[in-house]
Amino acid sequence: MKLFKHLKKISTAGLFGSALLLSACASDGLIRGTGDMGIVIERATGSVLVVDNTKDETITRVNGLGDLSHASAVYSRDARYAYVFGRDGGLSKVDILKGELVKRVIQGGNSIGGAISQDGKLVAVSNYEPGGVRVFDAKTLEMVADIPANDGSKTVGLADAPGNVFMVSLWDDGEIWKLDFSKGLTPAITKFKDIGTNPYDALISPDGRYYVAGLFGEDGLAKLDLWNEAKGVTRILDHYGKGEQKLPVYKMPHLEGWAVAGDLMFLPAVGRHELLVLDKNTWKEVGRIPVHGQPIFAMAQPGGKYIWVNFSVPKNDTIQVIDVQQLKIIKTMKPGKGVLHMEFTPRGEKVWMSVRDENRVDIYRTDSFEKVGSIEATKPSGIFFTDRAHKIGL
Amino acid sequence: MKLFKHLKKISTAGLFGSALLLSACASDGLIRGTGDMGIVIERATGSVLVVDNTKDETITRVNGLGDLSHASAVYSRDARYAYVFGRDGGLSKVDILKGELVKRVIQGGNSIGGAISQDGKLVAVSNYEPGGVRVFDAKTLEMVADIPANDGSKTVGLADAPGNVFMVSLWDDGEIWKLDFSKGLTPAITKFKDIGTNPYDALISPDGRYYVAGLFGEDGLAKLDLWNEAKGVTRILDHYGKGEQKLPVYKMPHLEGWAVAGDLMFLPAVGRHELLVLDKNTWKEVGRIPVHGQPIFAMAQPGGKYIWVNFSVPKNDTIQVIDVQQLKIIKTMKPGKGVLHMEFTPRGEKVWMSVRDENRVDIYRTDSFEKVGSIEATKPSGIFFTDRAHKIGL
Fold first, then answer.
1. What is the pLDDT of residues B321-358, one digit of tens each?
2. Using a CB-CB distance cutoff of 8 angstroms, which residues of chain A are in contact with residue B392?
3. Most buried of A160, B11, B120, B227 (most Cβ within 10 A)?
4. Where does the signal sequence lie (chains A, B) (predicted)?
């Protein structure tokens, strides 16, 4: 990959096509483990950077992924292919080893996220337009199932669960659906109705047991225990919001991630400048932590005692780090304007941060908070490392 | 890899050297993701099989690893290199992509296990002979630190912890040592003394917080909270064993693995035909589950509600599956004689089992318990998939 490095200085984004890489096909560059790789979404240019989180550098850029102004990604189980879900309904399959766009389909008009099945064979996409969920063969990207929602409801919070199951929430209809593909390509669908008004996102616990949807239209969150489905959906934190003045919501927080440390779980409050702290065992609120702004992501550092939080505009130049034993902010950092996303290295020794308006991804040590690297990126947003391939619900 | 497959039928173990694979160097075979790969230890022949857990097949065999009659392995952070710790003190670095033994050093006389540091740069080995811990550069296998134990005590339960720390227990001396490499190659050593007689193995919790050593010489287990080291080591389950008749111990159980499901933790009892069930939050025993024999491994299925258990001789032809909600055995299987180890695929849809005396590794679905595959292997024991690269304490 020496060639690439040499060219980097004089190149434009468009130069980094697959042709360059293919010419190196017989070289050692493509024979490498994929365990320390990842992608960075470049939201304005429809491109992704393929990155190396051992050397903290960019390997190549892949173009032509369409509108990535809101995008997320999952990985094949061999950690070679990234499936990127774009705002424009595009589903792109990227070969991160060859640095190639393998295939791209426009599967809907406006999509919000996706998931890959436990066995790695199915990729599901949740759509705002036309609503519902569409499911694709992970190899070919051919559509294998189309699951329309009632009246075209927008779907959110799509996540995989054990047993080749996808869980999804219906924004317009206030429902949670379980799509069970364990018996083949025609899913058994279980519908949980009246779960609350306007679920806006959801998470699944790392053990695949709980699916929890945040509600925008009313107080509390909707929780489903997948080990005891017959008990249905129950409300948790139903006091949350009551009697308090609502703040304008600049950006919806993300729930995906399950920020659990010990017995505590940390959730970004909607519209408020605080994190909610729950007891993971009772699902009851045990505290709130005042933070710098409206939190977007609250993420538990792997193997660490810290929760890292970023914020919506106009406070999105800041990161705060919370010690989970003291329940106190122990560090406030200002990486730059537009800190849109963070990703930890798999065992948590470093954290990568997209600083959109500075066109950089900064890399910090998590023990000393020292900045140890930085890579150039055009309006970077989501960062996705390949260890996600092996995790439930990510 | 077509060539390899064709040859497989007529070959002997020795034929599968690196030369064959190197000749295919320019082919697509070596350009692949490493997320769905792994190795199987062949304990009698000093070899490992490199395997693919998507296709459920063998890719190649690597020979020349010495005495693997008791062996374990860890992975580089790029999931390309396996470090194999052999009984004879050998430390072998295997390139699983090229199917090559990259390097092998005899670092001690009798070794029992090893670990890789959080940053992936250091590989540590715990020794019975000459005792102590030796630490090697992960790239070159050059020794970078030699940490003798008091009077040459055997060391056991070596595990990595966050902050480039290795934890280890001293069998002869009843101590736990923390070896902190965060500041460089001369570790800061913290010694916890009088933790109990003859710690025989240990585990670290997946969040890197707790280090727990089993005691062979007295009742209970020794627990250290690494977030609150000043509180020292405390005893848990100190009633465990008291007033009960000891059974002969055919084989020491392994603790590595942290079988946690929900709030419960499952530990194999030493010498007894039962699993101990602990409340993970209080560390108190909440029950025991009678099982078929002396348990060796009790492993939580990822994303599942089951604990899988194998047994020591003479009951080592059996596997039992425990439902963690009912705390009951729901399945007893007889895969064959010498079921030495199990490994789950990263998201838990399948489990691989070494059936030593049948020279097979069998592959089962975890939802239906249906056997879906089998590969030939010579006296297989430990199975290690590459997702371990991304986990603390494995």
1. 999 999 999 999 999 999 999 999 999 999 999 999 99
2. 302-303, 347-348
3. A160
4. 1-26
Distance CA B179, CA B204 (A): 14
Handedness of CA A340, A345, A347, A350 (dihedral sign): negative
- Report how far apart, in Å, the C-alpha atoms of A12 and of each of A15, A269, A378, B179 are: 6, 41, 11, 47
- How close B130 comes to chain A (CA, Å)? 31
**With an 8 Å Cβ cutoff, are B346 and A390 in contact?**
yes
Enclosing H/E stretch for B227: none
For B107-251, the fitting CATH number among 1.25.40.10, 1.10.1740.10, 3.40.50.1100, 2.130.10.10 is: 2.130.10.10
- Rounded to the nearest integer, the mean pLDDT of chain B is 89
Output the CA torsion A311→A314→A320→A322 (10° steps). -60
Whether the predicted pLDDT of B291 surpasses 80: yes
Token pair in block for residue A50:
């393929």
Question: pLDDT digit string (tens) for A208-224?
Answer: 999 999 998 888 899 99
Contact A303 B392 (CB under 8 A): yes
How much is the average pLDDT of A349-360? 98
3-class SS at A387?
Answer: helix
User: Higher-confidence residue: A368 or B260?
Assistant: A368
Digit-coded pLDDT (tens) for A284-338: 999 999 999 999 999 999 987 899 999 999 999 999 999 999 999 999 999 999 9
State the pLDDT at residue A247: 59
Query: Could you write out the DSSP letters of every residue in A54-106?
Result: TTTEEEEEE------SS-EEEE-TTS-EEEEE-TTSEEEEEETTTTEEEEEEE
Query: Count of alpha carbons within 13 Å of A270, Cβ hemisphere only?
Result: 21
What's the one-letter identity of residue B174?
Answer: G
Strand ordering across the sheet containing A233-236: A199-204, A210-215, A221-225, A233-236
Q: Write out the two tokens for A237.
A: 């934190």
Q: Looking at the predicted structure, is the pLDDT value of residue A28 above 80?
A: no
pLDDT bin (cut points 50, 70, 90) of residue A271 is confident
**Cβ A162–B75 below 8 Å, yes or no?**
no
Q: How far apart are CA A354 and CA A335, in angstroms?
A: 9
Cα–Cα distance, A347 to B74 (Å, whole number)? 14
For residue B257, CA distances in Å to A72, B179, B309, B388 come to: 31, 21, 12, 11
Instruction: Please indicate whether, in this complex, the C-beta atoms of B32 and A348 are within 8 angstroms of each other.
Output: no
Residue with tokens 């975890």: B366
* CB-CB neighbors (< 8 A) of B59 in chain A: none
A281, A347, A387, A392: best mutation site toward chain B, by most B Cβ within 10 Å? Answer: A347
Mean per-residue pLDDT for A162-178?
Answer: 96
CA distance A127 to A148: 10
Asked whether A73 and A39 are in contact (CB, 8 A), the reply is yes
- pLDDT, residue B261, reads 82
Would the CB atoms of B79 and A34 count as touching at under 8 Å? yes
- Cβ atoms of A68 and A43 within 8 Å: the answer is yes
CB contact under 8 A, B81 and A302: no
Render the burial of A118-152: b for 16+ CB within 10 Å, e for the rest: bbbbbbbbbbbeebbbbbbebeebeebbebebeee
Domain borders along chain A are 107-251
CB A332 within 8 A of CB A317: no
pTM attached to this predicted model: 0.92
- What average pLDDT does this structure show over B78-87? 97
Best probe of the B interface among A118, A307, A364, by most B CBs < 10 A, is A118
For residue B226, give the nearest of B255, B190, B264 by alpha carbon: B190
- Residue B394 is predicted with a pLDDT of 80
